[in-house]
Design a protein that fits this description.
By secondary structure, the protein is an all-alpha fold. 75% of the residues lie in helices and 0% in strands. The chain has six helices and no strands. It is extended, with a radius of gyration of 21 Å.
Length: 153
């Protein structure tokens, strides 16, 4: 199956968007913290997402509201590992803080994060993850709206 010209354009635009976002993420994570540039670097994607959401809701029904799961039952078995990790993190943080926050044997979560954020590449990966988490619901809703338009719904 040969790619059509429209699918090549779509793939090219996705590649361009990913490259542009990666370049933005690399720049944003290299900015010195607590400066105006750092606040702009972190706030710009949030403002862009907000503006895009406002514009899309002004042009039609809000597809973000339609994209949520339909009455999916809560499954405790599936959530138990995450709850266990959350409880473990809270317990370790509490123990680390009870020891004065200076224990080398039981570091606090902020100590671990400080070590992790020392490298530019790790900051870049975490920033890209933050962008992905923020944009994922919007992109899912846009994809759903496109598929509904394609079916004539």
């Amino acid at each position: 199956m040969r790619p059509t010209p429209s699918s090549r354009r779509s793939l090219g635009s996705v590649a361009f968007a990913v490259t542009a976002l990666a370049a933005y993420g690399w720049w944003a994570t290299g900015v010195p913290p607590f400066t105006l540039r750092a606040y702009v670097a972190v706030g710009a994607p949030a403002i862009l997402l907000f503006a895009t959401g406002v514009l899309s809701s002004a042009t039609g029904p809000a597809p973000i509201l339609q994209s949520g799961p339909r009455h999916e039952p809560l499954r405790v078995r599936r959530e138990l590992p995450w709850l266990g990790l959350l409880l473990l993190a809270v317990a370790l943080e509490g123990i680390g803080l009870a020891l004065g926050g200076r224990s080398k044997a039981v570091p606090t979560l902020s100590t671990v994060v400080d070590y992790a954020l020392a490298g530019h590449f790790v900051r870049f990966l975490l920033f890209c993850g933050w962008l992905a988490v923020g944009w994922a619901p919007f992109l899912r809703a846009a994809r759903l709206a496109r598929s509904q338009r394609g079916r004539g719904a």
